[in-house]
Amino acid sequence: MAQHTSRQCKGYLTKKESDGVLHQMTWPPQSPDLNPIEMVWDELDHRVNEKQPSSAQHMGELLQDWWRSIPGEAG
């Protein structure tokens, strides 16, 4: 995935920041905070560790059940 690091983009954002229009936040690239699916994987991992499935098939069934139980977006 491309990161927005071009000089033109950085220059534009720096100008807007100096004008007081925005504040740039420094976050590491690929931050889990910006990727909500990481929270889902963490929850699924936690659930697997709680249940200690006895086989790969059992784990697959549990994961599928848990995945289906995640509420979808409204609409």
Automatic annotation (TrEMBL):
Pfam families linked: DDE_3
Molecular function terms from GO: nucleic acid binding
Record domain Tc1-like transposase DDE: where: 4-54
Protein name: Tc1-like transposase DDE domain-containing protein
Organism field: Oncorhynchus tshawytscha (Chinook salmon)
